[in-house]
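Summary of Year 1 activities. Much of the first year was spent building the evaluation harness for sequence design. The harness presents a backbone, in tokenized form, and records the residue chosen at every position. We chose the following record to illustrate the format because it has been used consistently in internal testing since the harness was completed.
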């Protein structure tokens, strides 16, 4: 049994199409000033016609796998956290499995709205630490632009598209993912949901006409609960890890609203200088926000080996959770696979797939 699960690869993909607040001013009755002051969002990325949750997931996963020096055919599990899957079923993770050529991997999705990535991390960690698997690609990805009501200014200004991925591997290191805690409260489910299109309210012409296949939200209620739940979850995850806030080098919160993030930090008496924020450029990318933020934090030098990191999320359901981990970083001393090694891996994979059974 492995002692620990560590993150050995990370990466993200954001669509190239940028939608600014100025552009939204032309679509709904809003203003750059309102959006920026109430949410901190200046722009978000919007998937192009050909892009889907699975295609963005695959791109993020490829970067993460390259960094972990793991070939797709050696991946044992692919877990996609998303509430905007390609299909009701099959799972988006299956599309990713095929696109990656991860011929030996199991694949499934996890849906806990914006808490999906932390939930997927909890499941993957459990599987790795129990010895069931040696590695997993854990993805958070969303194409929420396809589920937004572009006539509803209270929601359409908030969300964006993108994907982030990490590779989790078994390790005998004494540290890794130190704790993950998850909570939920389904009694207020209707405060943030897509009402129709599921088995309870199947899609009909009427549901389409009423826009019930799109996101509805009571933002004020969500806001208040998010602040309290995220702060509580952070404290619980720290206690489980046997650490205090002073030990945390970087907090990476779900990027829903800068005011939520600031109030969580204030409640915890945690300095904003040690909180990673990129909501101004991406908006709320739901399940993708934390893995995108992790990748950007590493790229900008804000995550170093040995750093204790606090992840904290809140989303529809309601669901919330937090995780404390020690940043492992890339493997030591071995060069990452070059183009030749990657090409060899791809050829082996094709051979494997066409091999008669
Ligand atoms: C949505 C949110 C930004 C609204 O901010 P708020 O300060 O609560 O604003 P209110 O809802 O009180 O609305 C204030 C006014 O602004 C208006 N308004 C709402 N959206 C607007 C927009 N995009 N542009 C301009 N005005 C807007 C409202 O209609 C309201 O007008 P009224 O006073 O005439 O009725 C905020 O509640 C929020 O971020 N909630 C959490 C949402 C979230 O993060 N969800 C995902 C969780 S994972």
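For this record, the design step produced the sequence shown next.
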């Amino acid at each position: 049994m492995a002692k620990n699960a560590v993150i050995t690869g990370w990466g993200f993909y954001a669509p190239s199409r940028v939608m600014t607040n100025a552009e939204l001013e032309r679509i709904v009755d809003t203003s750059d000033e309102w959006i920026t002051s109430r949410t901190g969002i200046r722009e978000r990325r919007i998937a192009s016609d050909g892009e889907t949750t699975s295609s963005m997931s695959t791109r993020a996963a490829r970067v993460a796998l390259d960094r972990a020096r793991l070939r797709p055919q050696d991946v044992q599990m692919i877990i996609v956290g998303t509430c905007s899957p390609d299909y009701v079923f099959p799972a988006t993770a299956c599309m990713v499995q095929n696109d990656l050529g991860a011929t030996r991997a199991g694949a499934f999705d996890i849906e806990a709205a914006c808490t999906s990535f932390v939930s997927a991390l909890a499941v993957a960690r459990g599987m790795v630490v129990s010895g069931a698997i040696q590695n997993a690609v854990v993805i958070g990805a969303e194409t929420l632009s396809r589920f937004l009501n572009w006539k509803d200014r209270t929601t359409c200004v908030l969300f964006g598209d993108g994907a982030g991925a990490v590779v989790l591997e078994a390790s005998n290191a004494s540290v890794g993912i130190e704790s993950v805690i998850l909570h939920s409260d389904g009694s207020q489910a209707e405060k943030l949901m897509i009402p129709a299109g599921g088995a309870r309210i199947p899609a009909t012409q009427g549901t389409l006409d009423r826009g019930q296949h799109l996101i509805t939200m009571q933002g004020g209620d969500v806001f208040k609960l998010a602040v309290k739940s995220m702060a509580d979850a952070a404290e619980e995850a720290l206690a489980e890890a046997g650490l205090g806030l002073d030990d945390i080098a970087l907090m990476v919160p779900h990027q829903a609203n800068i005011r939520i993030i600031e109030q969580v930090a204030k409640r915890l008496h945690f300095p904003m200088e040690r909180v990673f924020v990129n909501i101004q450029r991406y908006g709320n990318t739901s399940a993708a926000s934390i893995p995108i933020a992790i990748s950007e934090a590493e790229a900008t030098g804000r995550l170093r080996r040995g750093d204790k990191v606090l992840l904290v999320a809140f989303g529809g359901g309601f669901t919330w959770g937090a995780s404390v981990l020690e940043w492992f970083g890339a493997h030591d001393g071995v060069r990452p696979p070059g183009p030749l090694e990657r090409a060899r891996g791809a050829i082996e994979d094709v051979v494997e797939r066409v091999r008669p059974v």
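Confidence is low (pLDDT under 50) at residues 333-340. Quantitative recovery figures across the full test set are reported in Table 2.
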